[in-house]
Design goal:
The chain is an all-alpha fold and about 290 residues long. It is built from 13 helices and no strands. Helices cover about 85% and strands about 0% of the residues. It comes from Hyalangium rubrum.
Length: about 290
């Protein structure tokens, strides 16, 4: 009886091991688990929610009709599933059996799970009031210098500032290009001038972006012990960590670029319609 039970147990273990090996060998399964454990889907959901919240914040700057059109465009373009699929496609294209398996192994660790939980929570819409309050507080009462130093190192290793600059750049380019395309031919900017406008916009946003990123990093990891911050930074600074950061950043930027291009096209159509309506009204008055 004991031998049969032992044999059955061994067979179950072997079957489980074989199944695990088969799953690990499936690139799609590995990528999906990486995206799941890294909080990618939740962060996309928060991006969508935050984009809708940003529209609400801009209500006083837009006319009711423009507000409605812009909101409808944002809802059509920034949807969780298309963004997730774009993210998955890029990760799948960058799949490396050895590196991806190693990243997955790290994401399963308690430290990685803790860091992801903090990152997802900090970016949620409901955390925004607390984040704003914290950003104001650290102006007069910043964390100790030693704490700031290790978090600055983490910020540098995660390349979060570069990531945000790239995100702003692709969104800015899409929107500015759309408005330029909708302008009358005689008022359209040539490519060189258009690039200058986009560059100036990036430069103007730069100081605010740096301040915002710093506050977000300090806020996100405020409850993470120094030892854990250092361990997380060491992973990000490793060859494997640098590879993962690059792939993840490129995937997110690519997904947002696709969505921003669609948004730009919709905004261009809205602007063209507005110009047509304005001309029609002028004709009626004559």
């Amino acid at each position: 009886m004991t031998m049969r039970l032992l044999a059955a147990t061994c067979l179950c273990l072997l079957a489980s091991f074989a199944h695990a090996q088969e799953a690990a060998a499936d690139p799609d399964a590995v990528v999906r688990e990486i995206l799941e454990l890294s909080g990618a889907r939740k962060q996309i959901e928060q991006l969508v929610a935050n984009s809708q919240s940003e529209i609400g914040d801009a209500r006083g700057q837009l006319k009711p009709k423009e507000q409605k059109q812009f909101q409808a465009s944002m809802q059509r373009v920034f949807q969780t599933e298309p963004l997730y699929q774009a993210l998955f496609a890029h990760h799948r294209g960058a799949y490396d059996a050895k590196k991806s398996a190693a990243v997955l192994e790290w994401l399963r660790t308690p430290l990685a799970r803790k860091a992801v939980e903090l990152e997802v929570r900090a970016l949620s819409v409901k955390e925004r009031p607390a984040l704003r309050k914290y950003a104001q507080q650290i102006q007069s009462k910043p964390p100790p210098a030693a704490r700031q130093a290790i978090l600055e190192r983490l910020q540098e290793a995660s390349r979060v500032m570069e990531f945000n600059r790239r995100m702003v750049s692709v969104m800015l380019r899409s929107v500015v290009s759309a408005f330029n395309a909708a302008a009358p031919p005689e008022k359209r900017l040539p490519p060189g001038k258009l690039d200058e406008v986009i560059t100036r916009g990036q430069e103007q946003i730069g100081p605010t972006l740096r301040q915002s990123v710093r506050a977000i990093v300090l806020y996100t990891y405020r409850d993470l012990p120094d030892a854990d911050v250092r361990a997380y930074t060491q992973f990000l600074e490793s060859d494997l960590g640098r590879w993962y950061v690059q792939v993840n950043m490129d995937a997110n930027v690519s997904a947002i670029e696709q969505a921003s291009t669609k948004l730009g096209q919709e905004l261009s159509q809205i602007m063209e319609q507005k110009v047509t309506e304005t001309k029609a009204k002028k004709k009626k008055k004559r």
